[in-house]
Amino acid sequence: MFETLILMLDATMRVSTPLIFAALAGLYSERAGIVDIGLEGKILGSAFAAAAGAAIFGSAWIGLCFGIMASISLAMIHGFACITHRGDHIVSGVAINTIVAGLTVTLSMDWFGMGGQTPTLSGDARFLSITLPFADALADVPVIGLIYSELLSGHNILVYLAFAMVPMTFWVVYKTRFGLRLRAVGENPHAVDTAGISVAFIRYRALIVCGILCGLAGAYLSTAHNAGFLKDMSAGKGYMALAALIFGKWRPVPVLFACLLFGFLDAVAVRMQGVVLPGIGEVPVQAIEVLPYVLTVLLLAGFIGKAVGPKAIGRPYVKERA
Amino acid sequence: MSEAKVPAWVNIALIPFLNILLAFIVSGLVILAIGENPIEAAGYLVYGAFGYDEGIGYTLYYATNLIFTGLAVSVAFKGGLFNIGGEGQAYIGGLGVGLVCLALDHTMPLYIIAPLAIIGAAVFGAAWAYIPAYLQARRGSHIVITTIMFNFIASSLMVYLIVNWLKEDGRMAPNSRTFEENAWLPYLHELLSPLGIDIGDSPLNLAFIIALICCVFVWGLIWHTRWGYQLRTLGTNPTAARYAGIDTAKVTIWAMLISGGLAGFVGINEIMGVNHNLLLNFTAGYGFAGIAVSLMGRNHPIGIVLAAILFGALYQGGAELAFEIPTITPEIVVVIQGLVILFSGALEHMFKDRIEGFFIRRAVA
Description:
The complex is a heterodimer of chains A (322) and B (365).
Chain A: H1 2-31, H2 39-57, H3 60-84, H4 89-111, E1 129-130, H5 135-138, H6 144-152, E2 155-156, H7 157-175, H8 177-187, H9 189-194, H10 199-225, H11 237-247, H12 252-272, E3 276-277, E4 281-282, H13 285-289, H14 291-300
Antiparallel strand pairs in A: 1-2, 3-4
Helix pairs in contact in A: 1-6, 1-7, 1-10, 1-11, 1-12, 2-3, 2-4, 2-10, 2-11, 3-4, 3-10, 7-8, 8-10, 11-12, 11-14
Chain B: H1 8-34, H2 38-50, H3 53-78, H4 86-104, H5 110-139, H6 143-166, H7 188-192, H8 207-224, H9 226-236, H10 238-243, H11 248-264, H12 266-275, H13 286-296, H14 301-324, H15 332-346, H16 348-364
Helix pairs in contact in B: 1-15, 1-16, 2-3, 2-14, 3-8, 3-11, 3-13, 3-14, 4-5, 4-6, 4-11, 4-12, 4-13, 5-6, 5-11, 8-9, 8-14, 9-11, 13-14, 13-15
């Protein structure tokens, strides 16, 4: 029983990693007042660029750089539309998701000709799991050994990075000058402008950070979690990250727990397939799959707590002219 | 800045034309990057979509779905609501159609099944839109987020229902049994051949006519009823609408119900018209494509029909293109679609402000 739980938590960590990256990416963007439903597209674009880069150059790190660059470019298109041209944030996000969904398949067919996939990656072209020191030696110690060797050890570096990004984001958002301005721009851009700080510049920088984090999420999917790019491999993770962001009320630590909860539900769904529970019968996998979305809807509707987003979110900032 | 000085054709024709032109130029660059000739590709595309009878039939068949989802998006849009859940509403609408057909195809003739199926599509689609609408109107949760979530919930619900309850016994394929032929919506080529008109075999069916009727209905509803006036007021200025005594929550909910019902009609075309059974993922992105259609068609039924035919042509021509030039995938159409959303939606101010400025300056001078 204990071992099963550890294995499920282990799976939770793996599944949650892209959600954590993407949800934190959304946090920077939305805290600065830019709605980002283009998380999905940025993840997918980065997953493709990372896998293609890794396949061509044989290095996961070069792939990661490509992934991040692709994701930042998409974030900049979003910024160009939403910040510079005061376009609708949702429409721009939908556009990015649609373009990427088509473009990744079109390009990978042309470059690799494998029905929209990239070649299978192996060796240095992937982020492989890291065994923490003494993990094997401690494996036989009761309880702690299992937690250390199974749960904490044996992940790839991006998983650890994702968890490290949470305190990092907390520090940036709440303890730095940039973070203060970021939050201010999302709540009251006029005040920021009055203080002589460029609203547009802060928002663009927030989107660059958003791009980097989505890039990490995408690269994780194609070069760490899987061994290559598959058509539509982001499979709604961007939207689920958005749900986690709302569920975590736009704050780093609660967002982490929301991602872990959604990841855990995913692990449960996989494990519950065909399992008959005493007294309840077989729980349909789909019922567990939809829980993240149902919970988010309930939260947004104020049935379980209340989620209030940044005040100036989704509204273009127009400088007043005398 | 008075908009009155800008000639009407600029907003109706010139700006949409420039937007689509830009989208095509960028797509052409993508094709060029692949190492193919964009002009040659465009030739195949146009031939595939309009060059022969079957091609035209397929184009209009795809357009049928896009008219439904485009209208769905635009009705909500008129009220300032962004219904991004067309995909889920269409999916559940198809469930309504499927259930009616499965229940009645052994006993009832088509002229009874068809109206009931249309009602089924509308009621199921509208019901799926009702919950996000209610939550937006009465509990203040954001309609975009809830409708996105409801797309996923719809998808899981349909997998559960089809795999566990509606699947044909003893078969592996996740779809229901094929309906009896009296629950099939007639193909237009079948209807027209007794009259001596030959339009070639295509999945184009009676749903296309229903789509055109829906256009007239939406046009009348939005521009020629009191409710339509309330809806447009709400969309233009919610504060003014409330001040004028309009029950904004009620208008919001009704706008979403109509929007969801229209999206649900995709099920009529796909389930009753073409597939003749209830299957997974028949919505195939039409709900999202509706956003592009509605933006391109400036939220007006005539514009939506034209935009839907354009996108239908892209779908059909894209298939032809992929057949003729195998290095180009049909997904190139999705890229074009995304670019249209980007240029005519997200970047609408980029051209509009400059062009309008140009015409205003010229009018003043």
